[in-house]
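Exercise 7. Given the components listed, write out the predicted structure of the assembled complex. Treat all entries as one system.
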Amino acid sequence: MRNAFIEELLAAAERSDNIVLVVGDLGFGVVEPFAQRFPKRFLNAGVAEQNMMGLAAGLASEGMHVFVYSIANFPTFRCAEQIRNDVDYHQLPVTVVSVGGGLAYGNLGYSHHAVQDFALMRVMPNMIIASPGDPMEVRACMHFLLKNPQPSYLRLGKAGEVSLHPSVPTVQPGKWVPVKTNPRDQHVCLTSGTVLELAHRALFLQNAPPHISLYSMPLWGMSLKDLQAEQVSRYQRVVTIEDHLPDGGFGSWLLESLVQSPQMLPKVRPLALSSDTCGMVGSATTLNRVGGLTEDAIVKALTAAD
Amino acid sequence: MDLSGPLALRIRRSALQMVHRAKASHIASALSIADIVAVLYAQVMRYDASNPRWSHRDRFILSKGHACVAVYAALAHSNFFPVTQLDTYGEDHSWLMNHISHKVPGVEFSTGSLGHGLPFAVGKSLASQMHGGTWRTFVLLSDGELDEGSNWESLMFAGHHRLDRLTVIIDYNKLQSLDSVFNTLGLEPLRTKLESFGAHVVEADGHDHCSLLAAMTLGRNPKPTVVIAHTVKGKGVSFMEDRVEWHYKNPNDVQLAEALSELGSPDA
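Answer.
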């Protein structure tokens, strides 16, 4: 995912002089091609996230599309008020990029577990969340954000993610992106982020129920709730999957979007990380399992009686 | 011709009338910066009031957004919008909200939470440097605001990147929200601290327009400039000067009349 991001950013910077990359002293092995190709449009702000985000807003106010790159919670929680007041309120084209969404840095401890970031970013009224499920969706999200510069949060995995789409899919804000669908299916898995791969594996298990469609939701946010009821209405059951705590996450966002259509609320079954993972250390696979994100749990959520 | 003197007087009078009408706080903070703002708008900055987004304008950011009435008054009296609009300050749905708002013509950036203005100004100054712009960026901070770590992150960055078209002005009235700066979190030796962060530091009498003009005139220095403007909180109204309660209180009818009388008329 990191490579897909930097490749798209490089291509965009070749086309446009207004692309700037600001990093918070992180990005070894990823950002060097940009820094070498565009040294005047690359800034290492140092280990100083408040200034990093504030200056990104200042640059954006002068017509630049600024990508602020760091890992885990550093470009979000550490400078949350700068995102709220400086970027989101002023509706400036700053894309906050966090590598290591979810538990990708599980072994590095709780400081590096980005499992509350959706909760923070989705309360910003002008913010669009880009949470791609595979490297192809990263490219699709980048194409969208570059065409539509705005306050935005790009949540990436780390490296080595499998491409599940054969080509770059079409993405639209608030619209579910099909990964495996059949018009007759009544049950769906709806994921946001790199858990798409886990859901994909679950649906190909021997004991997986038939007739399940799989969708990804790479672009969402506060302003896109109105589009959800119609999409949910097509199915009997929607199981949301996310590597984020349940509170303030993707599944709870979908449930909130249905408050005007309460008859649809029972259709949605959120599957999110248990807070048991908070404070634990381990690989993403291990911690996701501890937190209840497994293929079996997905199958169970899809097949449990109403 | 003295341009900034009459403007400073108009700013003070309008600021008093605005907070009185709105029963708002922070009049002493506004009076503290009235001369700084007057010198900026009357003598230092390039701008076109009929085209507030003119690309070659100098940028001004009020980081101590609670002192907004001084800037709203300066903008109105500099023809960015009609002076009569000031009467709406603090009213429901007014665009003149009680912390400075970017929805007001001539205002670059909304603040209110302290420690945001300087990082934003650093970004603007970087943009000017990247594009080879000739415009300058001015940012006005309070002294208590320097408690915020974000400012020191920015000062380190500005010094490192030699943002020579950035001018930081510190309204050093030595009084915070509850007590003096000295008793709250002492800043001294302030000049030495700022110089050690890579700034070109100038000290000025924050109520002497010649002193301010000299301090804010760009010299040939490859560093960001920080002007330590020594000021008096509540300056110009004797019963408000250096009194912590006027960070919060608003003048009643009698106090307003007394304050305006003491200031005198701009047409006198």
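Discussion: The domain at 4-263 of chain B is CATH 3.40.50.970 (Rossmann fold). The interface with chain A takes residues 102, 108-113, 115-116, 118-128, 130-131, 149-150, 153-154, 156-157 of chain B (CB under 8 Å).
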